[in-house]
Please model this.
Amino acid sequence: MKFYVCIKQVPDIDAPIQIKNGNLIQDTDRTVLNAYDASAVEEALVLTEKHGGEVEVVLIGPNQAKETIRKALAMGAHKATHIETREESYDSSVYASILASFFEDKDYDVISCGKQSQDTDAGLTGSMLAEHLDLPYSTNAVALSAQNGQLRVKRQGDAGQELIALPLPCLVSCSNDMNEPRIPSLKGIMQSKRKPMETIALDALEIDESALEAKTAVTGYREKPKREAGQKFEGEPEETARQVARLLDEEANVV
Amino acid sequence: MSTLLTHIAISDGKIKRSSLEVLSHLRRQAEQHGHQVEAVIIDAEASRYTGQVQQYGPSKIYTVENPVFKNHLNAPLLKALEKVIEQADPSLVAFASTESTKDILGALAAREEAAVLSDVSTFELTEEGIRATRPVMAAKILSENEARGDMILVSVRSGSYDLEEQASDAEVIEIDFSVDDQDLRATLEEIISSSGDTIDLSEAETIVAAGRGAKDEKGQQLISELADVLNAGVGASRALTEAGVMDPSLQIGQTGKVVSPQLYIAVGISGAIQHVAGMASSKVIVAINKDPDAPIFDIADYGIVGDLYDVLPPFIDELKKIAS
Ligand SMILES: Cc1cc2nc3c(=O)[nH]c(=O)nc-3n(C[C@H](O)[C@H](O)[C@H](O)COP(=O)(O)OP(=O)(O)OC[C@H]3O[C@@H](n4cnc5c(N)ncnc54)[C@H](O)[C@@H]3O)c2cc1C
Model:
């Protein structure tokens, strides 16, 4: 099976963030492989280890994102393509257009990606790309298996889960509930340095100017109004528990 | 004057309250800006719901009725939306942000070449499109966004707006719709329903959420007793859904559901930012945790420091007394 996994470098949300003049400033330039994409890489590796095949990762981003590609290669991906961009603020539809143009002349069984980016939580690019490429797709997958030339997806829906069989080629977006991504081994890290990584300049893809124009823009950031910590009760559980129960009734009026 | 279209989501034979929240908001926006608001219901029994939707004041209701919509499948849903959009020619289509919406929103935007903003917490119409607020960075930060274009799609978090009725005698327009196997593109083989009689967490007034601290059988027993007394929905942290202790549909947080109940009781949950991302807009938060430094206490209105096995029995007992 040939897997392409679309991956993204995202700021580490655990690192301290500040807002200055409406811009997000991170004191560190700590970046990570998007957790949802890491699950997509992991699952592609598991399926190709079982059924044979190849995993190639594709990343759109500036030069410094190579670090993230190397992480995926160290996990075990066989090769990588880096679509190098200047640092511009693209929205999901621009990312999807770039990827669509990249995949135009490619052969594959499955394109996978994370269900959303950890930083923006937009969750749009996957199904946009499927639409551009006219592929059957599923989102929010929590388990994958391959059988009889199909990809079988367990999708987390609103209430229950759905088992969906997709004909190949197809696209699937993955939840981090799918697996626990492996930590690269020392050997994996060594090997990753010798794995093929092709860099394509964005211009080389000859994408229509209009497809590179974002239809949405972030105009600013602000702190979320902080919730104040309320009353904290330490002491005899028998007493504090009853006291809080009564406050929920008499003070907060929520029971 | 242009048309603002609201998608009405149906789940378990009921209209999702969050869709009516969106419709209420859109109607107010339409009034302010001189537009008209319309609604679309896509369901196996779509016509059953038109009466209730009329209570919220759209000027037209489109129905697309077909047995294929008994279960969610993205390809026929997209085909139906495309047909309705062709007919209604809206400048804006608004959705409640459900898993079904998340499944199709990007694809629909690509198909319609529309600008799209997902999972917003508020939005307003502007001259060129919309302005919207979205929580980002695991909901630690709010981003301000603009979307422009001839057509804009937006999905809205549940609990963002209040319901407001304003009855109309909206015209009901049935859209002719058929599907063949080719349209399906994928085969839905099985539905694994979530266990137990679950209360829809996105609509629940009260939620009792269990974390790793309440992992064992006794903890689970206490959680369900507490939920029973309060007539609450049960939710969980990822620690418990991951361990298979709780149904995966019950996960609350960045990966799971976003909820905004009146009362949220977090039991044995540390308060990791990815969990908090899903529950921080609850009106009243109660935390029960034996670690006085657990981050959940930073956002709790009432924090009880103690072992949940000691705290819950008297807590439940007192709530029972209050209820009777
Ligand atoms: C991309 C990403 C997405 C994520 N999405 C989600 C999500 O949607 N939802 C989510 O919940 N998590 C999510 N997580 C995971 C999250 O980071 C935490 O790991 C998880 O929320 C921890 O669950 P917990 O609080 O139950 O467990 P822990 O962090 O282990 O906390 C257990 C708590 O229970 C307390 N405790 C233990 N025993 C007792 C007792 N007897 N009495 C009282 N207190 C006790 C402890 O003091 C501790 O505070 C995500 C992580 C990532 C990276």
